[in-house]
Amino acid sequence: MSTTIYQKPDAQGYYGQFGGAYIPEMLHRNVEELRNQYKQIIGSKDFRDEYQSLLRDYVGRPTPLYHAVRLSAQFNTNIYLKREDLCHTGSHKLNNALGQILLALRLGKKRIIAETGAGQHGVATATVCALKGIECIVYMGEKDIQRQAPNVARMKMLGATVIPATSGSKTLKDATNEAIRDWINNPNDTHYIIGSVVGPHPYPDMVASFQSVISEEIRKQLKEKTGSELPTHVFACVGGGSNAAGTFYHFTEEGSVKLVAVEAAGHGVDSGMSAATTRLGKPGVLHGSKSLVMQTEDGQVVEPHSISAGLDYPGIGPMHANLFTSGRGTFLSATDEEAVRAAFNLTQQEGIIPALESSHALAGLHQVSFKKDDVVVLCLSGRGDKDMATYMQAMGL
Amino acid sequence: MSRIQELFKKKNKQVLNVYVTAGYPQLNSTVTIMQALQNSGADLIELGMPYSDPLADGPVIQASSTIALQNGMTIRKLFEQLKDMRSSVQLPVILMGYMNPILQYGFEKFCADAAAMGVDGLILPDLPEFEFENEYGPIIKKYKLDFIFLVTPETTPERVKRLDALSTGFLYAVSSSSTTGKDQNMGGVSAYLQRLQAMELKNPVLVGFGIKDKASFDAASEFANGAIIGTAFIRALDGATDVSAATEQFIRSVK
Questions:
Q1: For chain B, how long is the longest CA-to-CA vector?
Q2: Degrees, nearest 5: CA angle A173-A178-A182
Q3: Who among B103, B150, B152 is closest to A299 (CB)?
Q4: Peptide bond into B25 cis (omega under 30)
Q5: Is A285's CB within 8 Å of B100's CB?
Q6: Residues 6+ apart with CB under 8 A from A272
Q7: Is the pLDDT of residue B52 over 80?
Q8: Residue A282: its chain B contacts at CB < 8 A?
Q9: For residue range A118-170, what is the model confidence (pLDDT) as tens digits?
Q10: Neighbour count for residue B202 (Cβ, 10 Å)
């Protein structure tokens, strides 16, 4: 069981057997430049000062760790919600977008590209680009553009150019392909901001370290509230897995802390309409790294399904694949229906409307039996405003 | 000596390598097109194994992959089609594709089966050099397949030398940092190719990406051993009812 490898991939970017940089030569220079420079830049005082001050004054960090009393009573235990939904732009995605744009500016880049599924990462990227006055291009699947109109409008209002990905299945995986192609065609002035802990090394490590502020804060806040930095359980939803990476990051070495990842089962793991990658995937290569990938027996990547566009991805970050195969993490899955039910429950118990992604983590609470004095921390990764159309449908409105 | 190496021994100027996606435009076009390529004077055949997420390819080749996949093309089907190819095709044949479908097929089994069918070399753009050296290269060698790395104008001279040393058969010079199918300014390309020429590489160099007609083929061949045509040929096959005739007409227009 290798737990240290969750935080520190080896020199080639491997977490156990997963990771690496499976990229065509056309991307080599850009990826190599990042690999050689990111650690030094993000460790520099100049970078840290600007990043910390913007995390505080612009993103709104630290986000609260909220003791959800009525939810706790329901499960007869102690549940704390890490309120990433209170970040500016409505989710944890801004932690990474901010870090990467500050990094890109220090690399002398003039143009930012990003992929987005539901639009949260696209909005976060467009937001920081507006803040810094830098050109922003967001690739988004043609189907997702239709499904997520409000976020498309937000990105446009922020000055970003939204380019529809019309190839393949016209969703997140194809938007990622198009963004990578753009990067190949613009090798000098462009930085590609990947929104999750996926992609070639050093992206998974870089994104995880920008998101690790989540668990850094949890430890401090939990100590103030309970006297101990360590909970018994940490819950997060996993698509590519960026909020989970940030939530687990500073707990992976603590053997007493159970790490619980909840994937999207869609209509059910075996329904053919699912995004539960650890249940359905096999080792393979997607978007530049080796991980678990949902695919046909001939090795063609399949289109997953989840009600939550943010979890609708046929792969998973390589450190999560390692967390899964090493047995260190517990991987559960929640269906579309269970997630929606969990969203309504939280809304009515606590007055918080969660994003559909986070609702999967909430639904996972039902699948674990807790003791009365357990301390459960759950990452509420985003707010539910963007999902009102789905919630309205559930209410018959 | 491999079939590819023999070719370059006999001919080291204006070598024409033609790319086609296996299973495009119809599932069973593959061998017919290979025969027509041979009849019309192509020197090398590069068969693309279609993949759902072909990162290094532009929209035209990706669309051909999508059609080939809809036609039902798989590595297994392709190998069935290629079983008897050496009874009619004498040109060197290279398979180009992405790692994921090959890993599912089984990397060693893939190499063994390809070699058994008379395939001569592999181009796998998303197989990085570290993994090539440590894991996959020895298997490729074991089955006596050539392996061709790509270099771009952004590749440093030291790295070009390294990739040249690792390659056998030839070196694939991408004419600019771009996905396939984009128009190139051949002037800028010449300077880059002259730089490569001056490096005295151990392998012949073929230029790929952006070659679409006689003029660009000749321009690219001037400072290299030849060129690779892909996107323009895929376009020529689009909607063709007689793929043999379309192939021969296209190749004659280039030569």
A1: 48
A2: 145
A3: B103
A4: yes
A5: yes
A6: none
A7: yes
A8: 104
A9: 899 999 999 999 999 999 999 999 988 988 889 999 999 999 999 999 887 78
A10: 11
